[in-house]
Amino acid sequence: MIRKTSENRRPKENRRPKLVSFSGIDGSGKGTQIEALRGRLNEMGLRVVLVTFWDDVARLKGIREVSGHTLFKGEKGVGTPARPINRRDKNVRSWYMTAVRFGLYFVDALSLRSVVNRALRADAEVVIFDRYHYDELANLGQTSLGQTSLGQTGLEQTSPGLTSRITRAYTRLLLRLVPRPDISFLLDADPIQARARKPEYPVDFLHNNRASYLALGELAGMSIIAPQPVHDVKREVLQQVLKKLSPLRRRKAEGLAAGNSQATAKLESQTELSSDSGDVRSFTT
Q: What's the predicted TM-score (pTM) here?
């Protein structure tokens, strides 16, 4: 008779990878925190898989590009302090765009559900999601006051937000449809500072979008990280992730970190620590 190892006897919940998602307004620092967490977990000997929402989850991208660039004359690319751009996509509000978003976001939710199921079978301890369906639901205007932004004509248009029973019901449906990550980080940020880092959308839109994220964060039970220095956010994120790991994995990670403190300090001084690491893999559909 073959005896099962202690690894096999451990509950399945402890063997599956932990799912961690990062959400927040543009310029809130998601990329910085994801890279920091990937690098730190890799140093601790943990295997990490990255899932990017736009590359691995989003569907019907052609429709989005046509609406943003062709119909609404938005600029392409990523805004930087040296080269601001004017995007016109999620900040364009009208009843028909809300209807289109309902359709697109439902398709993405089905895709995300499939991606999550496959991620749970990944050969890794942690799967990180760069954005989740929360980032799309926040675009619907999850506030009691509604959301305003510049429409195609340049005039403000109002979207009813969570005061609409349809939007509320739709949001709850998608929250039930897609499995919740073990930790869903919502990186809160001052809209003015966020736009200075990533100038793509008007400040007024970012203020409304932030309020939408915070309302959704409360509804979905997300872990909201208040605005604070980058290194403080890194420490808080790492602590929360380590707490979610099984005791055996946590002891392994902490033991490796303690036994290699000098090597860790050297690695932290290197740039692009985790981007070329063999233990940090991208997740493709």
A: 0.78
